[in-house]
Write a structure and sequence with these properties.
Its cofactor is L-ascorbate. It is built from three helices and eleven strands. About 6% of the residues have low confidence. By secondary structure, the protein is of the alpha+beta class. Strands 1-9-6-11-4-3-2 form a seven-stranded antiparallel β-sheet, covered by helices on one side. A four-stranded antiparallel β-sheet has the order 5-10-7-8, with no helix packed on it. The chain has a single domain, classed as q2cbj1_9rhob like domain (Jelly Rolls), CATH 2.60.120. The protein is globular, with a radius of gyration of 18 Å. The structure holds 2-oxoglutaric acid and fe (ii) ion. The site of fe (ii) ion (FE2) has 4 residues, from loops.
Length: 224
C-alpha cells in the first residue's frame, strides 16, 4: 500500500484553517493584500453575525480615531460606530482565537513578527463612510496587517459601501470589495490607502489590526 503523506510545511501545527491561511499568506506575499469572498468559516461568520445583530445599540460607542487618551471623533473622516472586541462574548472569543491562529501561521510563514491584535465591530448606517486613509504610517511601526470581515447578506451595487483598496497615493481607481457575508480582506497597513464609500444601507463589519512589538525601555507599546 502506498502511504499518503500529508503535505504540510508546518507538521504538527496544522489546523483546519490552514488551507485558507495559506491562500491569504500567498496573496500577501505576491501583492500585499488578500481579498477572499465568503472565506471566513461559516460557523464563525454566523456567530459573529448573530452577536453583532443582537448587541444592544448603547454598547456601540461613536467611532473615534485612535484609542485611549487620543480617542477623538472626527466626522469629516469617518462616520461609522464601533465596539471593541474584548473576548467577553463567545463569538468575540472565537474571533480572537481564529485571529491568534492566523497570526501564528503568518509569523511562521512570512516572518511578520505580529505580536498583538486589536479589533472592533463597526456599523455604517445609511450615509456613513470612511474617507481615504492609511491604517498605519511608515516609520511609526505599529499596525502591520489590517484585516476586515463583512456580515451583510444580499448586498447589491446600488447599496454602495464598497471598500476601495488603492495601490498607492497616485491610484485613483483602486480595487472595490463588496462587503458581503463572510468575505475577508487582509492588507499591509502601511502600504495601501483605502476608503469605505458611502453606504446606502446598514453595513456591518469587523476591522482588526495586527501590531508588532515596539516596546522600548520603560515604554510599553501597544498599551496592555
Ligand atoms: O470596513 C471596511 O471595509 C474598512 C474599514 C477601515 O478601513 C478601518 O476601519 O480602518
Ligand atoms: Fe482602514
Amino acid at each position: 500500500m502506498v502511504a499518503i503523506k500529508k503535505i504540510s510545511s508546518f507538521d504538527g501545527n496544522s489546523t483546519s484553517d490552514d488551507g485558507l491561511f495559506n491562500l491569504i499568506a500567498q496573496d500577501i506575499e505576491q501583492q500585499g493584500y488578500s481579498i477572499r469572498p465568503g472565506a471566513l468559516p461559516v460557523e464563525l461568520t454566523n456567530a459573529l453575525y448573530i452577536h453583532q445583530q443582537t448587541m444592544e445599540t448603547e454598547k456601540f460607542k461613536d467611532a473615534g480615531i485612535g484609542r485611549g487618551g487620543e480617542y477623538l471623533k472626527n466626522e469629516f473622516v469617518r462616520t461609522d460606530e464601533i465596539c471593541w472586541i474584548t473576548g467577553e462574548s463567545n463569538a468575540g472569543k472565537q474571533w480572537l482565537d481564529w485571529n491568534a491562529q492566523l497570526q501564528s501561521y503568518l509569523n511562521r510563514r512570512l516572518f511578520l513578527g505580529l505580536f498583538s491584535f486589536e479589533s472592533h465591530f463597526a456599523h455604517y448606517g445609511p450615509g456613513n463612510y470612511y474617507k481615504r486613509h492609511y491604517d498605519a504610517f511608515r516609520g511609526e511601526a505599529n499596525r502591520v496587517l489590517s484585516i476586515v470581515a463583512y456580515f451583510n447578506s444580499g448586498w447589491v451595487s446600488t447599496d454602495g459601501g464598497e471598500l476601495v483598496i488603492y495601490k498607492d497615493d497616485k491610484d485613483k481607481e483602486g480595487t472595490k470589495v463588496i462587503p458581503l457575508m463572510g468575505t475577508i480582506v487582509a492588507f499591509l497597513s502601511e502600504e495601501f490607502p483605502h476608503e469605505v464609500l458611502k453606504a446606502n444601507r446598514d453595513r456591518y463589519s469587523i476591522a482588526g489590526w495586527f501590531r508588532v512589538n515596539t516596546s522600548i525601555a520603560d515604554k510599553i507599546d501597544p498599551p496592555l
